[in-house]
Design goal:
The structure holds 2 protein chains of 2 kinds. By secondary structure, chain A is mainly α. Chain A has a domain at about 55-265: Up-down Bundle (f41 fragment of flagellin, N-terminal domain), CATH 1.20.1330.10. Helix content of chain A is about 70%, strand content about 5%. Chain A has helices at about 5-35, 45-100, 105-125, 180, 195-205, 210-265, 270-295, and strands at about 130, 135, 165, 170-175. In chain A, a hairpin with a 2-residue loop joins strand 1 and strand 2 (about 135). In chain A, helix 2 runs antiparallel to helix 3 and helix 3 runs antiparallel to helix 5 (about 195-205). The radius of gyration of chain A is 39 Å and the shape is rod-shaped. The two termini of chain A are about 35 Å apart. The model of chain A has no long low-confidence stretch (mean pLDDT about 90). By secondary structure, chain B is mostly helical. Chain B folds into 3 domains: about 1-55, no CATH class; about 70-155 and about 260-360, no CATH class; about 160-235, no CATH class. Chain B has 12 helices and 10 strands. In chain B, the strands form 5 sheets. Chain B has a two-stranded antiparallel sheet. In chain B, strands 2-3 form a two-stranded antiparallel sheet. In chain B, a hairpin with a 2-residue loop joins strand 7 (about 230) and strand 8 (about 235). The longest helix of chain B is centred in the C-terminal third of the chain and has 42 residues, at about 330-370. Chain B starts with a helix and ends in a 6-residue tail after the last helix. The mean pLDDT of chain B is about 90. The chains are: A mainly alpha, B mainly alpha.
């Protein structure tokens, strides 16, 4: 307490109080209109840096989410192509079984051989499947078709993998190495699908007893082996799709959690701020009214002649 | 009544100290004839005289006020300047550097999804350009704020600035006060004006005042080597230091090579160099960024030169994936740490400012309590003086009555 109170002290402290009331009113109104409690870093330095981190993480998850969806589409395109090839192989196997039971004449076998050649072309076409302008089975040479149309069967791509990011420092390889099932044809004599198909067509065309015998034995066995590895590759691709779908779910959950954390850190509690705002408004008008009343009074008012 | 009128007239004058008339009875008349009654003669009062009109002021509160005022002015200058730096960062917002960084990493993720896409490559270069130019701008803004602070210092402390002109006025007042006191006058108004100037100076830097016997003040300012004012001499310009306090000390502290602005700039350079180094280390075909400071960083590649794979195959995306995985790395971390530091610097300067403001308001109230003019008090005094005057007048009337009786109504001789 001070010994003497002068009007200047009263007006200074009233002015201070009015300013203080106005500045908290201003703060609350800024929080209300922006909906945020961190308007600049100094409001909550740690909170501000956390908002930056969280925003970056959420943006990161968004981009991983995009990459995962892209990866899923990629593996689904691959899966479609592989099941096409599987159907073709199945069809060739049926023809092979029919041809090998010995009831067909040479002309029939020759016709079947032509169909097998056409089916081989269909396999190569399926292998040339593109996703978003990129050849799915060319390794990283995605601008080059893996197989040329026609008699040339050599694989044109490479065996490098393509990955998609599914999280910070986590990637999944989405490319399937179909060339390991299809091979590079008779030129390579690798016993892979294209080699087998070409051999079958050749044996059907020749129609000699040896080739007829081969149809039923080695060719059928090779075809079954090729089918087996195709199914394995398809299964691997399918599990990649599943892995990506799981990742998508995880990313979504994580994104929700982070968005909630972000909201907790930066968003103003509207109910709380509204209540504070109206009580500050009341305090402000009270301060104004008190100032207007107190400062007018002085002994002067009561001195009369 | 005259003193009261002066007090009332100056009740709102800045720096005015209330005055009181110090009254003293005038020397009595000794009447030795009455010594028989009292044994030592009698004294007859002769009335009252004004001994002096004195200023009511507490020098201790003045020096406390000036110390706190220096500290407050230093804190509020720091808070103001740092807040400018803070607003240059523009965080948290969708236009800040953090968002640009994030967008840059996302552009690389998009490119890793479509390594052959020209649009994705252009996206990476565009995001990189925007990031680099935001860094350049931020660095430029920090430099401009620092430069403005230096200019502000020069304007106040340089030749012909505020310090010098205030010091000259104080020196002049010193001379006038000495003259007045030599001739036995009480130069209250000049003392008030000098105190007001000293209060003002204390906002610029710490002020120490040594009162001299001849009535002059010797003023030491901001720890400068020679006194700013000594008698009627002004020693200015002089060099101040970061420890000078007040606004000038704060400006020197902020702009010093180890000050806040330099350290923000340095931290921003760390962000830029972390970004350039980490991206260039992965982008091996040709450096993606040129320049390693915030002011010089720029994208050095065309969209066609953007590298997506280490083997150079069109569909490979290992490089793009690796760069996208830099998200949340050294560059992001050092930037968010920088924002946190700027924020807490501003916050602590503001908190200090608020605390000092409270203290200063308290001291000022104490000062006002001592020196301020209370109208109620002056009114009361006025009534007292008025009544005293009326009573004196009444005394005169009574004496007049008595004299009248004596002259008019005593025995009429010769009639």
């Amino acid at each position: 307490m001070y010994g003497r109170i002068t009007p200047e002290m009263v007006s200074a402290s009233t002015l201070n109080d009015i300013n203080a009331a106005l500045s908290s009113l201003d703060r609350s109104s800024a929080e209300l209109s922006s909906g945020k409690k961190i308007l600049e870093p100094s409001d909550d330095p740690y909170g501000a840096s956390r908002v930056i981190d969280l925003n970056s993480q959420i943006e990161g998850l968004n981009s991983y989410g995009g990459a995962v969806q892209d990866g899923i589409a990629w593996t689904q395109a691959a899966s479609g192509a592989m099941s096409n090839i599987g159907e073709v192989v199945q069809r060739v196997r049926e023809l092979l079984v029919e041809a090998s039971n010995g009831t067909f004449n040479e002309g029939d076998l020759h016709n079947i051989g032509v169909e097998v050649t056409q089916l081989t072309e269909a396999v190569k076409q399926a292998a040339n499947t593109q996703y978003a302008g990129q050849y799915v089975f060319s390794g990283t040479l995605t601008t080059t078709a893996p197989y040329k149309a026609g008699a040339e069967d050599a694989f044109q791509g490479n065996t490098e993998g393509i990955a998609r990011s599914i999280g910070p420092n986590a990637t999944v390889e989405v490319s399937s190495k179909l060339s390991e099932v299809l091979g590079s044809g008779t030129g390579a004599a690798d016993g892979k699908l294209l080699d087998t198909l070409r051999t079958i067509a050749q044996h059907l065309g020749e129609a000699t007893p040896e080739s007829r015998a081969a149809l039923n034995t080695t060719d059928l066995k090779n075809l079954d082996n090729n089918m087996e590895s195709l199914i394995q590759l398809e299964a691997t691709n399918g599990s990649t799709t599943d892995q990506l779908k799981t990742a998508a779910t995880r990313i979504e959950t994580l994104e929700n959690a982070l968005t909630k954390a972000l909201s907790n850190t930066q968003d103003a509690n509207i109910a709380q701020v509204s209540i504070a705002y109206s009580s500050e408004q009341a305090a402000y008008s009270a301060a104004l009214r008190a100032g207007a009343n107190i400062i007018q009074e002085s002994l002067l008012n009561f001195l009369h002649e | 009544m005259d003193v009261t009128a002066n007090n009332i007239a100056n009740s709102n004058t800045e720096g005015y100290s209330r005055e009181t008339a110090v009254l003293q009875p005038t020397a009595p008349i000794e009447i030795p004839a009455l010594s028989a009654l009292t044994g030592e003669g009698a004294r007859l009062g002769t009335g009252v005289t004004i001994e002096t009109i004195s200023r009511i002021r507490n020098a201790y509160l003045d020096s406390q006020y000036r110390t706190q005022n220096s500290a407050l002015s230093s804190a509020s200058t720091q808070a103001e300047e740092l807040a400018q730096a803070q607003s240059a960062f523009n965080e948290p917002s969708s236009a800040g550097l953090a968002t640009q960084l994030s967008a840059f990493w996302s552009a690389w993720t998009s490119l890793s999804d479509a390594p052959t896409s020209e649009a994705a490559k252009e996206g990476v270069v565009a995001a990189g350009n925007q990031l680099a130019s935001t860094l350049n701008q931020l660095s430029g803004q920090l430099q401009a704020i620092s430069k403005q602070a230096t200019e502000q210092y020069e304007a106040r402390a340089g030749a012909g600035g505020e310090v010098e002109s205030d010091a000259k006025q104080i020196a002049q007042l010193n001379g006038q006060i000495r003259l007045a006191e030599e001739s036995g006058q009480q130069p209250n108004e000049m003392l008030d004006r000098r105190d007001l100037l000293l209060d003002k100076l204390s906002g610029l830097a710490q002020v120490t005042v040594a009162k001299q016997a001849d009535g002059t003040d010797t003023v030491t300012f901001g720890g400068a080597a020679k006194p700013l004012v000594e008698g009627t001499t002004v020693n200015w310009p002089q060099a101040l230091s970061t420890a000078s306090g007040g606004q000038l000390g704060a400006l020197l502290t902020l702009t010093s090579p180890t000050g806040a602005f330099a350290s923000y700039q340095e931290a921003l350079n760390t962000v830029a160099s972390a970004l350039a180094t980490s991206v260039n280390a992965l982008h091996t075909s040709t450096p993606f960024f040129s320049g390693k400071t915030a002011a010089t960083i720029a994208v050095a590649v065309t969209p066609a030169q953007v590298q997506t794979s280490s083997t150079g195959t069109p569909g490979g995306n290992d490089v793009a994936l690796a760069i996208a995985a830099l998200r949340g790395g050294a560059a992001d971390q050092s930037y968010s740490a920088l924002v946190e530091r700027v924020g807490s610097d501003v916050k602590s300067a503001r908190d200090e400012q608020t605390n000092l403001q409270t203290t200063l308001t308290a001291i000022n109230s104490q000062r006002q309590s001592v020196s301020g003019v209370s109208l109620d008090e002056e009114m009361t005094n006025m009534i007292a003086f008025q009544r005293g005057y009326q009573a004196s007048a009444r005394t005169l009337t009574a004496m007049d009555d008595m004299l009248e009786t004596l002259i008019e109504h005593t025995g009429k001789v010769g009639l």
